[in-house]
Specification:
Helix content is 47%, strand content 19%. By secondary structure, the chain is of the alpha+beta class. Strands 2-1-5-4-3 form a 5-stranded antiparallel β-sheet, sandwiched between helices. It is elongated, with a radius of gyration of 40 Å.
Length: 215
């Protein structure tokens, strides 16, 4: 008797399509309950450590913490006092700089005004804020612009004090005579050379000299 060769059809494997996972948000809000539990666990650890300390050790620890707190308060007071002194010194320097009897200017190698004091602005008859980043030759008489160029070139090349006299044009169009005295200084922030210049109004001296020549 022949065995039946008929085989039951194998069951088709059921392929299950995985469910798409919901994308997790990159920015997850902190679980406050979890943070609280962690903080409480850390606190219990500290409390257990304190259980094994003797009364003398606890007193010593409290004394050290109190001393440390006093030191921090003293350091904070010193920092506050030092900060106030720096602010007062800065204010005094600003007053001395702005109200000096001569004009103070700081130029770069191209003759652009980087800094100017109040007296310098008064000499030119212009608001101090309007001077910053302006080209100084704009305020110089056309016939004297070469003199300022050569003056500036000598200052940067030789690194020694230089002086010159030239005519400056005020905002109202009037011209005045001025004596410039310059020296180079190093700009620490950018490690470049700058030109510091004092400007004196010598118009009256020039007029007096001209009158004396005519006598």
């Amino acid at each position: 008797m022949k065995k039946s060769t008929n085989k039951l059809p194998a069951e088709k494997s059921k392929t299950q399509t995985p469910k798409p996972k919901s994308p997790k948000s990159k920015l997850q809000t902190p679980n406050l309950d979890s943070l609280r539990k962690r903080a409480e666990a850390q606190l219990k650890k500290q409390e257990k450590r304190l259980e094994y300390l003797s009364t003398q050790d606890i007193k010593k620890l409290i004394h050290e913490l109190g001393t440390y707190q006093i030191e921090l308060e003293m350091q904070n007071e010193e920092l506050r006092r030092a900060s106030e002194e720096v602010e007062e010194s800065r204010a005094r320097y600003a007053d001395l700089y702005d109200f000096a009897p001569v004009g103070y200017f700081t130029f770069n190698s191209k003759g652009t005004i980087l800094e100017a004091n109040l007296t310098g602005a008064v000499i030119l008859g212009i608001d101090k804020k309007e001077l910053i980043k302006k080209s100084f030759p704009v305020f110089i008489h056309k016939e004297d612009q070469d003199s300022f160029y050569l003056h500036r070139k000598k200052v940067f090349e030789k690194g020694v004090p230089e002086s010159c006299e030239l005519r400056l044009r005020r905002k109202d169009g009037a011209f005045i005579w001025a004596r410039l005295q310059s020296i180079t200084v190093e700009d620490i922030a950018h490690q470049t050379l700058l030109c510091r210049t004092t400007v004196n109004n010598i118009t009256m001296q020039k007029k007096s000299g001209s009158s004396a020549d005519r006598i």
